[in-house]
Amino acid sequence: MIITTTENIPGKNYEIIGLVHGNNIQSKNFLRDFTQGLRNIKGGELKAYTDMMIESRSVATDRMIEEAQQLGADAIIMVRYDTSSIVENSSEVHCYGTAVKFI
């Protein structure tokens, strides 16, 4: 499966199947929140949160790919990511793109 943020895939012709997306809502762990709060006082990267967001982005991407595969897609173009806060102490990673089939 080709995943790209571009509109075109060089050398490929395709037909559009439709929008596909995946999301993941991740909550903070109390212990992680406490230790990262201490880290925030000192300054620097909040590594536990960085790792949490990397994992969340990966899960959301896998879910988008799974949806595209169910539609018989060969690639997903115009992939975008966004994040938002759903409720206090949680965040969502949402990814979406256009599923296409090579012709």
Provide an overview of this structure.
The protein is of the alpha+beta class and 103 residues long. The chain has one domain (2-102): Translation Initiation Factor IF3 (2-Layer Sandwich). The protein is 36% helix and 38% strand. The chain is built from 2 helices and 4 strands. The protein has helices spanning 30-42, 47-70; strands at residues 2-3, 14-27, 75-84, 90-102. Strand 3 and strand 4 (90-102) form a beta hairpin. The chain is elongated and about 55 Å long. The model has no long low-confidence stretch (mean pLDDT 87).
Topology:
Elements: E1 2-3, E2 14-27, H1 30-42, H2 47-70, E3 75-84, E4 90-102
Parallel strand pairs: 1-3
Antiparallel strand pairs: 2-4, 3-4
